[in-house]
Write a structure and sequence with these properties.
The complex is a heterodimer of chains A (about 290) and B (about 775).
Chain A: H1 2-12, E1 16-20, E2 31-38, E3 42-49, E4 51-52, H2 59-64, E5 71-76, E6 81-83, E7 85-88, E8 96-104, E9 110-117, E10 120-127, E11 133-141, E12 146-154, E13 161-169, E14 177-186, E15 192-197, E16 206-207, E17 223-224, E18 229-236, H3 238-252, E19 268-269, E20 272-280, E21 284-286
Chain B: H1 3-19, E1 28-34, E2 45-48, E3 54-56, E4 62-65, E5 72-79, E6 82-90, E7 97-101, E8 127-131, H2 132-136, H3 147-151, E9 177-181, E10 184-186, E11 190-191, E12 196-197, E13 204-210, E14 224-230, E15 239-244, E16 248-256, E17 262-271, H4 273-283, H5 290-293, E18 294-310, E19 313-330, E20 335-353, E21 359-377, E22 380-401, E23 404-426, E24 429-433, E25 437-451, E26 456-470, E27 489-507, E28 510-521, E29 523-526, E30 537-540, E31 548-561, E32 564-581, E33 597-615, E34 618-633, E35 642-643, E36 650-659, E37 664-673, E38 677-678, E39 683-687, E40 690-694, E41 701-702, E42 706-716, E43 724-732, E44 742-749, E45 756-764, E46 769-777
Parallel strand pairs in B: 1-7, 9-14
Antiparallel strand pairs in B: 1-4, 2-3, 2-5, 5-6, 8-13, 9-10, 11-12, 13-14, 15-16, 15-46, 16-17, 17-18, 18-19, 19-20, 20-21, 21-22, 22-23, 23-24, 23-25, 25-26, 26-27, 27-28, 28-31, 29-30, 31-32, 32-33, 33-34, 34-35, 34-36, 36-37, 37-42, 38-41, 39-40, 42-43, 43-46, 44-45
The chains are: A mainly beta (about 290), B mainly beta (about 775).
Chain lengths: ~290, ~775
């Protein structure tokens, strides 16, 4: 992938772009589960229907894609069972979420999800692994004003570890979201690692007014040295890692003509998406050095 | 089975075959050659005066006329490009005759499309030949004509491949073509991401193209064989020639000794993109200067030394070496990388003809190909290289006996391939992978062209190959590696490749042909991306990667009516054991190379049509292909059939040439092709507040159609110094068509995150591209 990325950059330098019209092929809508349960926190499920890619987007169509008539049952290996409750949540998108109100994630436990919607039964299972020990986040300057955010991690499980990195920039006024290339696999032999936390936008969309983005014009992946950045790092089970890697690798390859797109992985039976158990380490904050 | 005993077995068989002899005194047999270049001439008419007997030369320039029951005969030997020769021969004739023909004076200069070539005397359908003049008259791309770009204009071969070094013949893949330069195999046929091929047009004499059906002397490839022959360095053809173009210059020379025994032809090309870097610095800011951050250069050097021991014995030392270097250093995004790829090949050949008419060809060839990539992205280092070495020893004998033209041979190959030497440092982990495969093959082949009567001719050939793998070979899950010195064969494929072809001449001007071939391919090209790249690598057949094979059936009808030559060819091809590299495997583990592939099958079928003619000063050609190519891989979309990326339903080329006078000539080429297929998400879904993709099939979209117009103008300068001095002005993509290279979606969001817009973006590589060059020869 790296090689093709380099070649892409070279080609793009001489390439010309224009917008064209394409015909939307037949597409059968899928039930999408975007769910996660973090250690010490409630379970969150965003349940939607997928849409043909080239159809119009507006607030009505997006809201209509949300499936708010489902029954979602969460069962844990610790013997707990709960039917999740539908909440409105304006800080995130889509703005409706099914949430547990009693079950919280426990490291080592397995969580089974049963979703009944539109006469269909959709199931998924995940576990919450032991979180890594995150001892620091720091900035490695690339220029006088920008740098690459890094984190030092420790692993003591004696098994392969799978890491998910999420980030929240204060200057960008964004929510927690996955950084660029947000998942790592660490071999069991390694007890520590330095992770690059590469800047990405909260979503993979282009802005109609890009200059309103604080990081407009900044070098790729780099943060301002003056930003305060919250970093949330957690562990995934192997299946969860493979699903997340598959989805984010595909997303990052949208504009790469050399990448082979194949079927995406999912751990949702009867639908698409992900049901992810995350063993989260405490959130760390990178704060800029005070200048006199 | 031991390697030595296999060689012994095969040598006995081939020796027995060579011992048989044939002779027929009532025949005249011989070769027609170019008086200047000494190259054989194909399609020369030989007619017995005052008789209905006539024939034509084959691709080696050979002919024979039998059943001559007189004391002497007079032959009229004619070809549109040569002066007609009339000669009387006493019978019984000397066993083998040589007839050199003089090129017509007015054809030694630049010519336009002539519509003179005929394929109907070729026994096999799907075979075409281009000579140097055919190549040089094509519109120039960035200041240089190109051999493969001329080949791509043949029906059944895709013409539109910007930024793509692959060649796609009748539904085959980029790795399904065999590229030969003076019988040396070259593994990577392109420079500059496919803009130029490795074949130097100034030293090229002709190109034979076999589109899926080929005689048994050729090692198999599923799609095509591109056999490029350099000119012979002979006394009548001494020259120094050159071409100075936009991006590269080319210099070639051909010289021979006074006694004509020794001769050398060589060509060298070198790009000068570095000069663009220097000049661009004067007008562009550093941050806007593409050439400041990127470097690219290529060179190649090829040649041939010829030694004529006597009129029946010739030695040739041929070579090719070429290399591309690409570098990028973009500190702002943290990328630095260097990439290099190239070929090298050297061969020693001995061609001789015995007094009894046996023609022997012996060749020993060493070929090496390599590619390297060394890059760094934000402190993560990736190194990747691929190396191939191939040593071959080929022997062929051919003879004509009555109505038979027989040939047989033995080829021995040895391979050492390191397909994927990979080292990636990421965080604290180093991922490494390296395996070297050693393989060999022994092939025995025999073929016969039998002239049943004046109207019907048949060719039957078979190639038997024993393909072997040697230690060390590590099976999956087996960490032990045995020593090569034991000589043990680890795996073994015994394969047959038969070819059968038939031609029926309906009348003087029309014929029908049919051919069937079972092609086997033992070395496979693995593409690291969905578009062929120079860093693609070759892998041998192994226990898990079986030889690819295909069945191809071709039917052809050929007609010449009122000076227009029509051809119609229908083909069907079924391909098996196809391989597709899957680099998306979990890279936390070290994999065996064999595990990195999807395995599948393919079908392709279609019809290729062409019409060519000349009318006064105007020459024209229409070439149209209607085809379909599909693939199926078990691991992709549950094995469902999907359209191949290069599945093009329509592919049309229209060529026009007009010669105004001795100084000016013009040509135009219009290309139209159905758009390639591509994989795009059909659906979208939300995850973590952003839009993700959902696919409902592979290659599920078709890009917009490809078309462009190329114009070319030659001005022939008068000179007392130069034999030839031509200024060329070319305009590629004259109406600035933005042809698709790839397409992708962009999702735009305004301040209201509920308002999203979907845009489909198309990236095009080459806008209108003027070029200028000066070609000279003295």
């Amino acid at each position: 992938m790296k090689l093709t990325l380099f070649i892409l950059i070279a080609l793009m330098a001489t390439a010309c772009k224009k917008e064209i019209e394409l015909e939307q092929p037949y597409y059968e809508k899928q039930v999408v589960v975007d769910g996660y349960i973090e250690s010490g926190h409630y379970a969150y499920i965003f349940l939607t229907a997928s849409s043909p890619f080239l159809t119009e987007y507006d607030s009505v169509s997006i809201t209509e894609s949300f499936l708010n008539n489902a029954t979602i049952t969460l069962t844990s290996s610790l013997g707990e069972t709960e039917v999740l409750t539908l909440f409105r949540q304006n800080t995130f998108f889509p703005p409706f979420v099914y949430r547990s109100v009693s079950i919280k994630g426990v490291v080592g436990a397995t969580y089974q999800l049963d979703v009944k919607v539109g006469g269909r039964l959709i199931t998924a299972s995940t576990t919450i692994p032991v979180p890594p020990v995150v001892d620091s986040v720091y900035m490695e300057p690339s220029t006088d004003s920008t740098g690459i955010l890094k984190s030092r991690l420790h692993f003591n499980t004696g098994e392969n570890s799978y890491v998910l990195m999420q980030v929240k920039s204060t200057l960008s006024e964004e929510n927690f979201h996955a950084c660029y290339n947000p998942v790592l696999s660490i071999n069991a032999d390694n007890t520590q690692a330095i992770a690059n936390i590469l800047r990405s936008r909260e979503n993979n969309m282009y802005y109609v007014h890009p200059k309103k983005d604080y990081y407009y014009g900044y070098p790729k992946f780099q943060y301002s040295l003056n930003d305060s950045i919250l970093v949330k790092i957690g562990s995934l089970d192997q299946e969860g890692f493979q699903v997340m890697k598959s989805v984010f690798l595909d997303q990052a390859s949208n504009e790469n003509p050399f990448i082979f797109h194949n079927d995406l992985m999912t751990n949702i039976n009867g639908g698409i998406g992900r049901w992810t158990g995350i063993g989260v380490a405490p959130v760390l904050i990178y704060k800029p050095k005070k200048t006199i | 089975m031991k390697f030595g005993s296999l060689i012994h077995h095969w040598l006995i068989v081939i020796t027995l075959l060579f011992l048989s002899q044939w002779l027929d005194a009532s025949c005249i047999k011989g070769y027609i050659t170019d008086n200047q270049s000494h190259q054989p001439i194909q399609d020369v008419n030989i007619r017995v005066n005052n008789s209905k007997q006539a024939t034509a030369t084959d691709s080696t320039g050979y002919f024979e006329i039998c059943d001559l029951n007189t004391l002497s005969v007079t032959l009229t030997i004619s070809h549109t490009a040569y002066e007609t020769l009339t000669i009387t021969i006493e019978l019984p004739a000397k066993q083998l005759q040589y007839f050199p023909l003089l090129p017509k004076e007015n054809l030694t200069q630049e010519v336009l499309i002539e519509g003179k070539k005929t394929t109907q005397r070729e026994l096999m359908p799907g075979i075409q030949t281009l000579n140097q003049q055919d190549i040089l008259k094509m519109p120039q791309f960035m200041g240089e004509t190109d051999v493969l770009k001329a080949v791509q204009l043949m029906p059944g071969i895709q013409a539109a491949n910007e930024g793509n070094s692959g060649l796609y013949v009748r539904g085959g893949g980029a790795g399904h073509n065999l590229f030969l330069l003076d019988k040396m195999e070259l593994m990577n046929p392109s420079h500059l991401m496919g803009i130029y091929s490795v074949f130097n047009p100034l030293t090229t004499h002709h190109v034979d193209v076999y589109k899926g059906n080929a005689p048994s002397q050729y090692e198999g490839r599923l799609a095509s064989i591109i056999d490029v022959a350099s000119q012979h360095p002979v006394r009548e053809n001494n020259f120094v020639a050159g071409n100075i173009g936009n991006l590269a210059s080319n210099l070639a020379l051909s010289q021979s000794s006074k006694n004509g025994k020794w001769g050398i032809i060589a060509g060298v090309r070198r790009s000068y993109l570095e000069a663009l870097s220097l000049t661009s610095s004067a007008v562009l800011k550093d941050e806007d200067n593409y050439f400041k951050e990127n470097s690219y250069n290529f060179y190649d050097f090829n040649g041939k030394i010829r030694y004529a021991a006597n009129e029946n014995s010739f030695f040739y030392l041929t070579w090719y070496i070429g290399n591309d270097n690409f570098g990028i250093n973009n500190q702002s995004v943290g990328y630095t990388a260097k990439s290099q790829w190239g070929n090298g090949s050297i061969a020693l050949a001995w061609d001789r003809t015995s007094q009894k008419g046996f023609r022997f060809n012996h060749l020993i060839n060493y070929t090496a190909a390599n590619s390297q990539f060394d890059g760094n992205i934000i402190n993560n280092q990736a190194y990747f290289s691929s190396r191939l070495k191939q040593l071959s020893f080929k022997n062929q004998v051919s003879q004509n006996y009555g109505k038979h033209q027989l040939h047989a041979g033995l080829d021995i190959y040895g391979y050492q391939i390191t397909p994927f030497d990979f080292n990636y440092i990421y965080l604290n982990d180093t991922l490494s992978q390296k395996e070297t495969f050693r393989n060999g093959s022994l092939s025995l082949y025999v073929g016969d062209t039998y002239k049943i009567n004046m109207r019907n001719e048949i060719y039957a050939g078979i190639r038997l190959t024993d393909y072997l793998g040697f230690e060390p070979y590590t099976t999956v899950g087996d960490s032990t590696t045995k020593q090569y010195s034991s000589g043990e064969v680890t795996h073994h494929y015994f394969r047959l490749s038969p070819t059968l072809s038939f031609q029926h001449r309906i009348n003087e001007s029309s014929s029908f042909k049919a051919a069937y071939s079972l092609n086997q391919q033992y070395t496979h090209l693995a593409s690291i991306g969905t578009i062929p790249l120079p860093n693609d690598f070759w892998v041998p057949s192994t226990p898990q990667l079986k030889p690819e094979y295909s069945h191809q059936l071709t039917l052809g009808y050929y007609n010449q009516w009122r000076g227009i030559q029509y051809t119609v060819e229908v083909y069907g091809k079924q391909m098996n054991n196809l391989l597709l590299l899957n680099l998306n495997t979990d890279n936390t583990q070290t994999h065996h190379t064999e595990e990195m592939f999807y395995k599948g099958k393919g079908i392709a079928y279609g019809i290729d049509m062409s019409a060519e003619s000349a009318w006064k000063r105007l020459n024209y050609a229409f070439k149209y292909s209607l085809g379909h190519s599909q693939r199926s891989f078990n691991a992709i979309s549950n094995g469902d059939w999907f359209n191949d990326k290069y599945d093009r339903i329509h592919d049309l080329n229209v060529l026009l040439g007009y010669r105004l006078n001795q100084r000016w000539d013009f040509s135009a080429l219009w290309i139209y092709a159905t758009g390639n297929t591509t994989t795009l998400p059909a659906g979208r879904w939300w995850m973590m507040g952003t839009i993700m993709n959902d696919y409902n099939g592979y290659n599920n979209f078709r890009m917009p159609a490809y078309h462009r117009l190329d114009l070319s103008m030659n001005y022939h300068l008068k000179s007392n110094i130069f034999k030839e001095s031509v200024l060329n002005f070319s305009l590629i993509n004259a109406y600035n068509r933005m042809n698709p290279y790839f397409i992708f979606y962009k999702v735009y969001m305004d301040e209201n995150r509920y308002n999203l817009q979907i845009k489909v973006n198309q990236v095009s590589l080459f806008p209108i591209m003027p070029s200028f060059s000066w070609r000279f020869k003295f």
